[in-house]
Amino acid sequence: MTSTATEVTQTQSLAAVRNFIRVAVSCVTYLRGLCSDESYQPRQFLGLQLKQLVRSSGDAGAISRWMEEGAFDALNRGYLKELSLCVHEPNCTELLERYSFMVSYSPGGQRAALSLTGESMKENLSCSFGTVGGGGGDKMGKVLRKRRCRQEVQQALASIITKLMEVVEGLPPLLCERVLTMQLKYYEDVTPPSYEPPCFAPASPSTVAAHYREEKNSTDIATLDTGHHTLSINIRHKFFEQLRPHNLSQMNMYDASSSSARRDPTKGGKDDAAAYGCRNERGTTENRTSRGITNDWAHADEVAFLVFTSFILTKSPTVSRGRITMGEIEEYLRVACPMEIEVKQVQSMMRRLETSGIVLLEAPLEWAVSEQRSAVVVSAILERQDVVSLLSVQTRMDLRYLTTGRKVSRLSSSKGRKRVRA
Question: Which CATH number fits domain 270-391: 1.10.600, 1.10.3470, 3.40.30, 1.10.10?
Answer without folding.
Answer: 1.10.10
